[in-house]
Design a protein that fits this description.
The protein is α+β, with helices and mostly antiparallel strands. The protein contains three helices and six strands; from the N terminus they run ααβββαβββ. The protein has two domains: 73 residues; 47 residues, no CATH class. A three-stranded antiparallel sheet has the order 1-2-3. Strands 4-5-6 form a three-stranded antiparallel sheet, with no helix packed on it.
Length: 132
């Protein structure tokens, strides 16, 4: 994205130069000259606005990609064990107990709470009875 930042900076300089030419006291009073400089300024400003819009869009897309990569990494570590899901940590050990209903239907990692001999989801109230 640094290329876009450089482009925006270059367009800013170009607009400033064009404004300087328009207002310069060089003895040119031609209305056509001033009109062409004004048109140049308008086009440069539109280009700058469009480039900034592209910069914002790319930044948004990069944020979305980052979030999707994080979700994909978590998904790759999810293991279905009996009536619930668990996350595999870096050492390969399973951690936590997560609701299978919330994970399958909404892709949510909802931790289960121990309640007597069972585990219950605080969101959907699914109750799990581990076999071990």
């Amino acid at each position: 994205m640094s290329d876009i930042s450089i482009g925006i900076a270059a367009l800013t300089v170009a607009v400033d130069i064009a404004k300087g030419l328009k207002n310069a006291k060089i003895g040119i009073t031609s209305s056509k000259y001033k009109s062409e400089i004004s048109e140049l300024i308008d086009k440069l400003l539109k280009s700058k606005k469009e480039m900034y819009s592209m910069y914002e869009e790319i930044s948004t897309k990069n944020d979305e990609i980052k979030k999707l990569k994080e979700k994909l990494e978590i998904k790759s570590k999810m293991v279905y064990v009996g009536p619930y899901y668990q996350l595999e940590n870096a050492e390969g050990k399973l951690e936590g107990y997560y609701c299978k209903v919330c994970y399958i239907s909404d892709n949510l990692l909802m931790p289960l709470d121990k309640e007597g001999e069972s585990w219950i989801c605080g969101k959907c109230n699914t109750r799990c009875y581990p076999s071990n």
